[in-house]
Specification:
By secondary structure, this protein is α/β, with parallel strands linked by helices. The protein has 14 helices and 13 strands. It folds into 2 domains: about 170 residues, P-loop containing nucleotide triphosphate hydrolases (Rossmann fold, 3-Layer(aba) Sandwich); about 200 residues, Nucleotidyltransferase, domain 5 (2-Layer Sandwich). Helix content is about 35%, strand content about 15%. A 6-stranded mixed β-sheet has the order 2-3-4-1-5-6. A hairpin with a 2-residue loop joins strand 12 and strand 13.
């Protein structure tokens, strides 16, 4: 658990080289397939570049495997595809940046396969993120933690990195995470503090759900690493029904239609930025054709706030609505998985010219390791019916 530029990847590569002398079944896992190839295998600190000439593994890209001269095999996987890890068995695994894995279920599948004798182990390298995987690892008595900071290897880093990156983040909360490798939990800048969620909106303290209103929030992925997410509001209770990658406008529309019918919702709020507008249009067409009873409201988080005197845009107002609900214990979040709560408590806020402003998704991704798509879907559902042009439907 170390800061940027410390040498974590080099440590992982050298560990795999050493373990391949004793064990035959090794694996690599990184956030994406590109990360496996560019960091763990081909990178300047990866397996191919750091191996001695007589101990360099042969790479079979088609079979996603490297083979050492003694026959030891190293398979590689991506956390983007948790199901590929199902049923795979390992003696040694090198996990790169698990705090940035899009699907934390990949860790669960990996651990279930880490079972081959005599002494299965995993090496996890990364900068800590405030997510379930990291917290659970640190709480596990079988975890051995090695810590380090960016400054311990600063002599080997580029001048531009020292001058720009270190200077920019030194002394900030993000710098504490990225440079000093501190796990940041209690965050005074969070729009929705984690402590409020646990104390007032989960378990016995959570409000009792009523039968109405019921609505859906749909966060539509614009591509890249983002996900589509579908959240349900049923009275005061919120849940995430689905989360999926590789969006398709028609397929997403059908998923929403099926959920609307199954849960009898009265409204659907759709993130209308980019291809989300296409989803909103198709849902409206379905409503006019009698396939959808709920009203459809396109929502652009970048648009002006309903209360422009207090908020920089609708995104800030929607997240602040979530903050006020949490502070008052006004919604039941007991059914949210811990990974979704991680997203809900991740965004920061600030005041710009006297107005509340919530940081953009790209900034949240840097600190959290993934996009808060499920949390955005929840906030969309919490907006209530948008016909009256106001946040909240309470």
């Amino acid at each position: 658990m170390a800061g940027r530029g410390f040498g974590k990847t080099r440590a992982g590569a050298e560990w795999i080289h050493a373990q391949a002398r004793r064990f035959q079944h090794l694996s690599l896992v990184a956030p994406t397939l590109d990360d496996v190839r560019e960091l763990q295998i081909e990178g300047e600190s990866g397996l191919l570049e750091t191996a001695a000439p007589w101990w360099r593994p042969k790479w079979n890209q088609q079979r996603r495997r490297l083979t050492y001269p003694n026959g030891a095999r190293v398979r590689y996987f991506t956390a983007d595809e948790p199901e590929r890890l199902r049923g795979k068995q390992h003696q040694r695994v090198w996990c790169e940046e698990p705090g940035s894995w899009r699907y934390p279920q990949a860790w669960d599948q990996l651990v279930l396969g880490l079972r081959l004798p005599p002494d299965p182990r995993a090496l996890i390298t990364g900068t800590p993120k405030p997510v379930r995987i990291i917290r659970n690892l640190l709480a596990d008595p079988h975890t051995v933690v090695t810590r380090g900071t960016t400054y311990e290897n600063v002599a080997n880093l580029a001048d531009a990195f020292r001058e720009e990156v270190i200077r920019r983040y030194e002394g900030t909360r993000l710098g504490d995470q990225e440079l000093l490798a501190m796990l940041l939990e209690d965050d005074s800048e969070a729009v929705i503090p984690r402590a409020w969620v646990a104390e007032r909106c989960q378990g016995p303290a959570a409000p009792v759900s009523g039968p109405t209103p019921a609505g859906l929030g749909v966060d539509v992925a614009g591509g890249g690493a983002d996900d589509c997410a579908l959240a349900l509001r049923a009275g005061s209770t919120y849940s995430v029904l689905m989360r999926w990658h590789e969006p398709d406008t028609t397929a997403t529309t059908e998923v929403v239609l099926a959920a609307a019918r199954a849960h009898g919702v009265s409204y659907v709020n759709v993130d209308s930025v980019g291809i989300g507008q296409g989803v909103a249009d198709q849902l409206e067409q379905a409503r006019r054709a009698g396939r959808l009873a709920a009203r459809v409201y396109p929502v652009n988080f970048g648009a002006g706030a309903d209360d422009p005197a207090r908020f920089a845009n609708l995104r800030a107002e929607a997240w602040w609505n979530g903050r006020e609900l949490t502070e008052a214990g006004g919604w039941n979040l007991s059914y949210l998985e811990e990974d979704v709560v991680d997203e809900l408590v991740a965004p920061h806020y600030s005041y710009v010219r006297g107005k509340v402003q919530v940081e953009k998704k790209d900034q949240v991704k840097l600190r959290l390791g993934r996009s808060p798509d499920a949390a955005d879907a929840i906030l969309l559902a919490a907006l209530g019916e948008r016909g009256g042009g106001r946040v909240g439907g309470w």
